[in-house]
Amino acid sequence: MKPVGEEESSSSIHHDSSIPSGDNSVWADVSPLLSAACTDLQEGELINGDNFNLFAAMSALEIMDPKMDSGMVSTFYSIDEAIESGFAPVPISSDSTVNVQSIIDIMDHLLACEATWHMGHSLAQTVFSCIYVLRPERTSSQALLHSYCRVIRATCRAVVSVVSDARTNEEEDLFTMTYGLPFSGDEDAKGLLLLNAVEETICRQLRACKATRRRVLEALVTCLPSFMHFLHALNCMRRPQGRGLELARKHIAYCISELDSVLESEDFLRLNIVENGGNEIEESTTASGRSPIGFDPTLNKRLSAPTPPRAIKLLSWKKAIDYYVKLLHNLDQICVFSLEPDLEAVLQFLIQFQKSSPDLVARAHLQLLLVQDGKLYGRDTFLTICARSLALDVSKNHGLHTNEYILQLNQLMVNLLKILCANTPWQRRKLGKILNDWSIFHVQMGIAVGQMMQHDTSRASKNGDKSLLILNHIYGGLDEQINWVAIRFLMLGFDLDLYSPSEYCMVYWYMYIILWKLAERARFRVLIVVNTEERKAKRNKEYSRDMAREDRISLWVLFLKCQTCLAQGLTVMIAALRNEGMCLKSQGPFNTENEKFIQHFELLQKASLPEYDAYESFSKSTSHARLDYLPMYEYFHDAQKIAKDIKVGYANDPDKLAEVQGLEKVAERNIVAVNLFCQDRSLKVSFEFTHHPYFATAVVRRS
Amino acid sequence: MEDKEEFDEGEIEYTSYAGEHHLPLIMSLVDQELSEPYSIFTYRYFVYLWPQLCFLAFHKGKCVGTVVCKMGDHRQTFRGYIAMLVVIKPYRGRGIASELVTRSIKVMMESGCEEVTLEAEVSNKGALALYGRLGFIRAKRLYHYYLNGMDAFRLKLLFPKPRIPQIPSQDQTQQEYETFPRPRE
Q1: What is the ipTM for the molecules in this complex?
Q2: Which of A69, A94, A659, B139 is 20 to 30 A (C-alpha) from A506?
Q3: Cα–Cα distances in Å, from A290 out to A85, A449, A537?
């Protein structure tokens, strides 16, 4: 690194006299001072102040180091300079066929840029690296390019708006940074109108032109509408209470089928290119393999602060298309969701949705649909939803809506749903943290409800006011919700690859404890629901009981029990393997299993899940496990039996059915494995997740 | 195949950071092997404030590996942090990184650290295995942590607490029951 001032001292210092120096200060030439300081300090030395921390150290830039100095390498000093030098001509070529081909390349490259932006890179270095997008007014003579630039700006704005409104942007803050970019204007309508007109013109031209040109135009006709439909779909999805979902779905279907034709047109566009090798085409950001005109990622370098700009690798055109296909399918999944006022349905949907690892844009849309104005779908209060899951009707108890515990519960539910829309690493961290909030709330509400019950003169309930009863039931239901969050937290650890095989034993033990509690609470809820429904039916002979709901909860209880048995079986099996020396113990030079246990589960312990010393209980229950310990087989057999029984119940739910079949296989295979271990203790054991993402299957191999 | 250096483990000499002459060695090693660019101030920040946590490995006078760390208060805990660990390719797989990092961790433990943390790329199997053997757990996954879009794991090693005699729990029966209740039908 060169000390600052070395180069400056040789050139004359000129300061801008137009900048006022302020009341108590004057401009002074500091070059001599700097030179003197330079002779005192060796290269790279620093004067360490008390406030010099790691952040300050990491923020220091080495001037002229291309890895760090954002201003160092750029082709042009400004956009104007780039335009003046003819970097982005309008029209691109005087040959109209070449002109259209070049525009297609620009559109392709912009698609790759947009997808790369969605994946978490800055807008300044991706979409806004295009001079035509930065200065759309220049292209007004070129209707196609002009309208496209406007549509893409409108699309970027729609996406930024959905992500910033949802605030699911997690660590991806970069996503919504638009400062310094020309990002305002009401281009949506204008751009779309223009694009419509352009499409018509092209269709007319198509009928009267030569073969080569016709193929280029055809390619264009197939890809143009997809951009319009995409923007339409995004806008429809934003309508309140999911009212635009049906229409959005139509636009999405258009987009998907058009993307398919775009992929077909790629072959043609490539016919014209012979000079490029095959590999280069795979990596290319355009379907044709040519480099697009008018892009310079260094143009906005000075806008990309506060982080130093990094060289980013754009997604290839093919990968960008794959990204959009996935995004559209995720958006479609959201559009078909039934919007039932049913908490379990929502939670199940969220988990299913997250299985395909949807990207930020899709997750933001889902979150905005689920939570609007503090209500589910902007329509149902969480009091109604929670009461409904207990078969209670709150339409007569208006006072409850302003009850402080109900308001707090509403807030907790809103937070929970938002967190469940986040990316899974962030989601797990947040779930761990909110467990504590839930458990504190649980204790507080318990005390308050208890006191209210004591002071209740029972006159209120005679008058038909069931508020207290409802509050009490909702309080009872909280425990189930807390354990649901806890099990989601534990299971996500498998998705994120946070557990090593030597830790599986403690993880399954903990899952067993939570699942058992969860199943118990759910069973309790079945009793409440059945009881309430029976009373309603008795009072009103014409009352039709919602048997489907009762069956659904009972099935859910059995599903949980099946998982409970598996977790229990796996705990004992792995403990036995460990105790008999067939599996590695979790022990390092600096700490023991106890410390690992504390670290993995401290957030659960803080939330009193369970209420006793979990580690002591874990070690007691696993230290004596042996392979000839018979109950181990029973656990797996029980799981297998329950899985068999509940398959019928899930016949209409293919996802759940597949999961239950997976659980059944895990039980089956582990029974076989245990039999093999018992016969030959020299076998090598490993664990696989071939049948279920969270429940392991033991695999044996001769050593 | 990479060229592996032929050497005897006994030939590797380990030394604690001993002054300015070690700095260029550390910088060139890290610059070569790690993707993140660090300014000289970052190196100085670490080696001047915690020279005792920085170690170098030499083979016949050539610096082949280094570890750079810090420690300090972090949310009511005193924690160590492993910032950089590098062993050049021909010398990998022979326990040099383990030895370097073990030396740092020992000093951290003796200095009263309660835990040690670091980040490692999810695809860096070698590093994950090394830290796993030392007792680190994967505490969190950090989404898109690196600028190349890769996730990282936050690895943590908790030291055992000094033993305090425990009063036996009062409600043993409850615990025994909760240990393995049979699922009820």
Answers
A1: 0.86
A2: A659
A3: 21, 70, 72
